[in-house]
Design brief:
2 helices; mainly alpha; rod-shaped
Amino acid sequence: SSSSSSSNAADSSCVCVSEATLRDRVKQLVSENARYMSSISELHLQLSQVREERESFMQRVQQLGERVTVVEGEKRECVEVERRQERAAHEVRTELEQSRAQVAQLRER
């Protein structure tokens, strides 16, 4: 009789759900799962696009970095040319002043 009382206790705690309700719940879960899988596929596609854009961006950054290096080298060359030109102009001015001084001395004689 103790076994029948324990089975009665189990029966009273059991929630009876109709087969139709279970089918509806399964359909609902399958539908939710399909939406999640679709969302996951879309996110994978977006991730691939972002990775491609990042790779393209990084290549562009590298190209720009190389260009900056070239431009900096050209700038250094320009600065050096300007310095040489300034030295040469200074030398020419100095020679011109010396020549003028010599001409003035010759005129005084």
